[in-house]
Amino acid sequence: MPHIWAAISANETDGQALYLPAQEVESVVKVPTLLERAEKTAQAIQHLLWNQERQRVGILMANGEPWVRGLLATFRLNFTAVPLPLPVAFAGPEAYVSHLARIVKDAGIGVIIVDDSLGRGIMRRVKERIGGGCQFLEINEEKGYAAMLPPLEPADTLAIIQYTSGSTSAPKGVSLTHENVSQGLLSLTESLEWRPSDAFGVWVPLFHDMGLFTLLSSLVRGSSACLWRPADAIRNPMEWLSIFSNSPATALGAPNFFYDLLNSSALSQGIPKGLDLSSWRIAANAAEPVQERTLETFYRTFAPYGLTENSLQPAYGMAEATLIVTTPNPSSAFRSLNLDRTKLGIGDTVALAKESSPAGRSVVSCGRPVPNMQVRISDEHGSFFAEGCVGEIQICGEPVTDGYFGLSPAHQPFTPDGWLRTGDLGFLWDGELYVTGRLKNMITVRGTNIYAEDVEEIARSTPGANHRRAAALPWSDGEAESMVVLLETSLEGSEAEALSQAARHRINAGLGLSLVEVIPVRPQTIPHTSSGKVKRGVALEQARQMLVAKNVG
Question: What residues have CB less than 8 Å from 408, skipping those under 6 apart?
Fold first, then answer.
């Protein structure tokens, strides 16, 4: 497979463009123009890092043409791109700056490309913390450098260090070569049966693997792409949806929470006049647990406006696989199984439950492995499980990383025979993957293993909770194991207390879990990653402080 720059430049077409629908100035940039600009930016980067060993480039900007141009410029130099997170998901500027400094040190970044999108105050703190070992390039203030650019190197060159969002641990840098990325992009577009008329729409942050690789997949296929900033979609969902429907985009990848947001916004605000979703061919749902109720509500809400049932595509992926691992056939509707939740432990053979059973749990199929990808189910000892048996999901294939940057072989997440251990649990059924939860999110109460995701979904589905964010966390008072659940709500006082009691009753009825306390918290309280996953270590400390304060009071 080719170098990414070579693939994009070889497939560029006159009509191919980067669309920026929310931009008032320069809302369309033709890809040939984008590549020309990227070469000039590459010359500026090369000037800063001439003869330096630290040829890794951080990209610290909001979604936009400068971000894409900086990425392409890094590829053109055969340097390694390190997408850097923005402050939105962090508990204050100090936590953010410390996190950023750790990544810069860990990756050995020599220059960070920036623009004015971060804000002067936070940028000043970033520069003060990182110090003089790393330079900063203001991408919109480049000077002209007439330097010879190097020839493109082989595809085994390291292209990207993609830092994971760190929902259960400190973030780690996923090392991806041009070969990994090219194969991953090919797997993605082939699995979606990509058409010449297709174009990805992207609002997810480009420092997140879903945003980054969906955008690149359009560019390497000679297709256009439409790019928004996250706030464009999150703050005004119905306005964004109307703009999306009138854009060239035919495909979108987003976490489950965004489809919930569109559902609730349609109910509270109404459907935009003249909405036509008939060209929306792929609505991929991934990056966090996919909920059947979300898919059903989304289809029921938007089918009258041209959305087809086949467009709803629950998928499974991760940065370590260059995004995509499994996805359904785009010509088929999504599927799910109603399972006995007491039979979903490691080594259990799944059992179907009656629709009315309180022990039932709906699990959505994430489809079959994409081309160049293999999936198997195993236990911690390396024993492989047959279809229908729950275990750890393990993967291998050409898009899969060779490991985390800078970690010793002993700390890499691979089995002795070279398969990547994902840390996720699931099972295969008729060749399709069903994801049941995260291994680290399994909570043991009185000897019973309970998925945090199960508890959270029951809490979020409590009447009055409006499907807001929840976090189920293990708790021990030194004598007994129990669970505490943070549940976001705008209710206050006795109404909030009534909601927490109702959620507690539902959790007890659905899971047989009596040792649980539900704490109502204000919206936007629970810490989460850019893809919506709960930052469980931080959330647990929040819960500890709340319980201590409650007991003292």
Answer: none
User: Lowest mean pLDDT: which of 6-10, 117-121, 308-312, 529-533?
Assistant: 529-533
Residue owning tokens 């009656």: 354
Q: Which residues contact 277 (CB under 8 A, 6 or more apart)?
A: 245, 302, 305, 306, 307
Q: Which residue's structure tokens are 């649990």? A: 425
Instruction: Please tell me the distance from the alpha carbon of residue 383 to that of residue 399, in angstroms, as a whole number.
Output: 24
- Copy the structure tokens of residue 407: 């970690």
What is the reported pLDDT for 168?
45
The residue among 75, 294, 60, 25 whose CA lies nearest residue 181 is 75
Q: Which tokens belong to 464? A: 């009055």
| H helix or E strand, kind and range, residue 162 | strand 158-163
How many Å apart are CA 309 and CA 282, to the nearest integer?
10
Reduce the secondary structure of 525-543 to three states and give it as a string.
Answer: CCCECCCCCECHHHHHHHH
The yes-or-no answer to whether 4-21+29-179+204-227 and 446-552 have a common fold is: no
* 86: exposed, middle or buried (Cβ count in 10 Å: 0-12, 13-18, 19+): buried
Rounded Cα–Cα distance for residues 535 and 254 (Å): 19
DSSP bridge pairs for 444: 449
Query: Residue 120: which residues within 8 A CB-CB, separation 6 or more?
Result: none
191 vs 465, residue with greater confidence: 191
- pTM greater than the 0.90 cutoff: no
- pLDDT range class, residue 379, cuts 50, 70, 90: confident
Please state the domain extents for the chain.
4-21+29-179+204-227, 329-440, 446-552
For position 165, what pLDDT does the model report? 61
Give the Cα separation of 407 and 412 in Å (integer): 7
The third-level CATH classification (topology) of the domain covering 446-552 is GMP Synthetase; Chain A, domain 3 (3.30.300)
Q: Please name the residue that has the structure tokens 């082939």.
A: 190
| Pairing assessment for the beta strands 282-285 and 312-314 based on DSSP bridges | parallel
- Give the Cα separation of 463 and 472 in Å (integer): 18
d(CA 523, CA 200): 31
DSSP letter assigned to residue 30: E
Of 3.30.1050.10, 3.40.50.12780, 3.20.20.70, 3.40.50.300, which CATH number belongs to 4-21+29-179+204-227?
3.40.50.12780
Distance of CA 35 to the CA centre of its chain: 27
238 within 8 A of 225, measured Cβ to Cβ: no
- The domain over range 329-440 is classified in CATH as 1.20.1250.20: no
Q: What is the mean pLDDT of residues 530-543?
A: 81
| Exposure string for 280-314, b = 16+ CB within 10 A, e = fewer | bbbbbbbbbbbbbebbbbbbebbeebebeebbbbb
Question: Counting Cβ atoms within 10 Å, is residue 460 exposed (0-12), middle (13-18) or buried (19+)?
Answer: buried
114 forms bridges with which residues in the sheet?
Answer: 60, 138
